[in-house]
Amino acid sequence: FTYTHKKQSGGAGQFARVIGYIEPIDPEQQAELPHEFVNNVVGGNIPTNYIPACEKGFTDGLQDGFMVGHPIVGVRMVLQDGAAHSVDSSELAFRLAAFHAFRESFKTSNPRVLEPLMTVEVSAPIEFQGNVLGSLNKRKGLIIDTETQEDYCVVSAEVPLNNMFGYSTELRSATQGKGEFSMEYKRHSPVLPNVQEDLIKEYQKKLAEKK
Hints:
Blueprint: E1 2-7, E2 14-24, E3 35-39, H1 51-64, E4 75-83, H2 91-107, E5 114-125, H3 129-138, E6 142-149, E7 152-160, H4 167-174, E8 180-190, H5 193-210
Parallel strand pairs: 3-4
Antiparallel strand pairs: 1-2, 2-4, 5-7, 5-8, 6-7
């Protein structure tokens, strides 16, 4: 990205230019810090006292979550160069420049919306195995393992958390009240493209209503 923030309105204006790039990082591998800001500016083209403002603009963008209003993870912003003006540059100007540079780069980087994926384990009498598998498939579950122990079966699957609402009621009726399940968080995973499209449209609609 190369982004110049300029504003002239009587008296001192605002000027800041930032140059660099953004790249993906695996938030699973960097669970402690799912995003990163790297300053590679040399030669003082951006005075060092403005670098923290650039990082703040980046973190503002992460919180803003331009696509669906949720925080952004899994991205690194690398600042390589820029320009400042002795009179018109300020912390605010660099903060805004970094924010807009990140927003513009992010929107063209094919970002994906992530959702929590759960490991679900269902146990039920063996005669209900077909019903259990059907109920998980219906909720876009990925069957990982099926075990049978005497007259019981245990099915393990990965299912999006969003698809698990109301599952206990469904499982009870599918197994005559004899089925049980447990679930725990596994990881975040990209939503299906059509779901992402719907979420973006919904968010845009909310923004339009606020205006």
